[in-house]
Amino acid sequence: PVALWAYTTSVWASIHKSWSSWRGYPTVTTTVGASGTQTLTQRLFFRGLDRDRVVALGDFGRQASITDSLGTTITDHRALMGQVREQITYDAGAPIGKTLSDRAVTATEGGALPSWQTPAERVAYLVRPAGTEARTKIADGSWRVTRTEPSYDST
Length: 155
Hints:
about 160 residues, mainly beta, six-stranded antiparallel sheet, two-stranded antiparallel sheet
């Protein structure tokens, strides 16, 4: 796994900012249970690295994405940092369940910022669940797929 750091955007950071914002590992694996009866769970996380700075004095042009086990590639939006995209549960080394979570990211009102803030934008994001797909391995080896999608009142 690759651990990545992001360029700090804190307004309290010094003028000598750097890549000091720890963004963690893309996947985290946990094991629960006694030897021989262990369940392993693997989670794929968003780290919020898209549009991060790529050179010390400018360019916020990093293009970052994550790819889940189904091959779906999704932009690693900064508003999604720390959220789980996919969780896979294994039994005896074989996947027995998968949950994929979709999120809707909406930019709200923003405004101009002083030139010293990096990146020079002031945007708040509304992040909401957009759907969940649960896959369960059944006896014949195929997957049972269940999809839930929330709806929201716009008022």
